[in-house]
Design goal:
Blueprint: E1 2-4, H1 7-16, E2 21-26, H2 32-44, E3 47-52, H3 72-82, E4 86-88, H4 92-95, H5 114-117, H6 121-136, E5 140-144, H7 148-160, E6 166-170, H8 190-195, H9 197-211, H10 217-231, E7 235-243, E8 257-265, E9 268-276
Parallel strand pairs: 1-4, 2-3, 2-5, 3-4, 5-6
Antiparallel strand pairs: 7-8, 8-9
Helix pairs in contact: 6-7, 9-10
The structure holds adenosine monophosphate.
Length: about 280
């Protein structure tokens, strides 16, 4: 496995490797969720590149950029054990040299849901993913359903800017109590970690009600909200239901419904979602 730190070397590697390449963009501190993406990437291409980069432009001032967990040695060992071909691990100077002025914005989609409380977040995500696509030139790229809005925005950007990358979305990997795995779970205190299971429980309530034929999503949303508030100290950022393909409001003929939520446990913001169809 090669660890590449510069854009020029990454480009040289890509030019020398003409086979298919799958890219897995991550911010590191890898867990089983990331590893599931890597395994998917390996099944889709001859070579797998994992990028590890805590992207400053997707954090707003006051967010957790400085304390975001990092452990590059452990990440490299995990990537090596999975048979990854290249870890791309660039510095901030490499990715955003002085004078950087250009951003990629996917309009509308980036201003709703998570974009309401994090107005510059998705601009940072689309910018860094566009840069990674240009640098690595992958045939396919794997993202997690855990970040459902991100996955839809990247799909849109990929279409709109004609990157021609095959976007693969991998299912959410969960802890045994249902909490979606996340590098940020590390921040949770013991009590918050236990309480955080309410998020998945509330999504499971949605699934049960949907499967029993109920379609009053507003009532369901209130029920989920009550479950979270009665059983934890969480502050809910939002609970919403949208068309799973477009994030448009649900209509009577909507086929796949995405229930998404975000909540704070102390200062830690967690997100989760479920698709009902
Ligand atoms: P991150 O390092 O948190 O930016 O995540 C990198 C990629 O891994 C993103 O595409 C995430 O959606 C995906 N991911 C993170 N957590 C999970 C999980 N629990 N299950 C599946 N994919 C995940």
């Amino acid at each position: 496995m090669k660890v590449i730190k510069t854009i020029s070397e990454m480009r040289r590697w890509r030019r020398a490797n003409r086979g298919t390449v799958a890219l897995v963009p991550t911010m590191g501190f890898l867990h089983e969720g990331h590893l599931s993406l890597i395994r998917k990437a390996k099944s889709h291409a001859q070579q797998t590149v994992v990028s590890i980069y805590v992207n400053p432009t997707q954090f707003a001032p006051g967010e957790d950029l400085d304390k975001y967990p990092r452990d590059i040695e452990r990440d490299e060992a995990l990537c090596r054990a999975e048979g990854v071909d290249v870890v791309f691990y660039p510095s901030n100077e490499e990715m955003y040299p002085a004078g950087h002025k250009t951003y990629v914005v996917t309009e509308d989609l980036s201003g709703i849901l998570c974009g309401k409380s994090r107005p510059t977040h998705f601009r940072g995500v689309t910018t860094i993913v566009a840069k990674l696509f240009n640098i690595v030139q992958p045939d396919s790229a794997v993202f997690g359903q855990k970040d459902a809005q991100q996955a839809l925005i990247i799909n849109r950007m990929n279409e709109d800017l004609n990157f021609g990358v095959h976007i693969i979305i991998a299912s959410i990997v969960r802890e045994t109590d249902g909490l979606a795995m996340s590098s940020r779970n590390k921040y949770l205190s013991g009590q918050h970690r236990t309480e955080a299971a309410v998020l998945y429980q509330s999504l499971q309530m949605a699934r049960r009600e949907f499967e029993s034929g109920k379609r009053d999503f507003e009532t369901l949303k209130n029920k989920m909200q009550r479950h979270i508030l009665h059983n934890s100290s969480a502050k809910i950022d939002y609970i919403e239901y949208r068309d799973a393909e477009t994030l448009a409001p649900v209509q009577t003929d909507t086929k796949k419904i995405l229930f998404l939520l975000a909540a704070y446990f102390g200062k830690t913001r967690l997100i989760d979602n479920i698709i009902l169809k």
